[in-house]
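Hey, I was hoping to borrow your eyes for a little while. No rush at all, and the record is pasted right below:
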Amino acid sequence: MKRYTLLFLSLVAAGCGSGSSAPNSTGTRQFDITLQNLTSTESNSGQPFSPPVFTTHDGATQLWQLGGVASLGIQNIAETGNRTEAINTLRPLVGASVLSLETPLSSPLQPGRSVTVRVSVDATHPYFSHAWMLERTNDGFGGQDSINLFEQAGTQSYELYGLDAGTEVNNERRGFIGALGAGDSRDPEGGRIRLHEGITGRGDAPLSWNWNSSTISASQIPVARVTITPVP
């Protein structure tokens, strides 16, 4: 099986599922999107994901971009897991530059668990994006940016690596990571979206919160798998 790497996303098993679905009379296609949390399932380990935001959109709309400055919506997701700002930004665009907006789950997606949603795309809105927080970090998150689904044939599976929103210093300290207790204060950074270094042990966060218990650099360990399946 070949492996391709693009923007820290590894695309595997191309075409491994059933055949693709053709656009219907209205020119739309539907896909089932499954997000699986791959972080460690050992006790008090790994990273719960905050409830995600999934959207399909046109080429002028972007939820986030590697190397770009995080929007307020992404900052809120990455720092606190709060998706309200992102939803409020996207919802008025539904029916125009946004085709689908899905907000599943009301509680975190725990390590080893998965969630599936159905989205629609068409020739005007072919792109799929999503985002969610790595909850035991300062400003870690995950997702995909502008994946073109409209011309996709067969089931595709992507492995996703942890991202750093660049909005808060990774001090790993109590009072700045909500999961540690004592509040969720900000330590502003003013950086750009990049690959996350993982939990390093420099502060109060235990090393068991890293993506898994391996000694391999977190930048080489996927945090999630996304499987995208055409609906016949």
About this structure: The chain has a mean pLDDT of 88. Residues 79 and 139 are 4 Å apart (CA to CA). The chain has two helices and twelve strands.
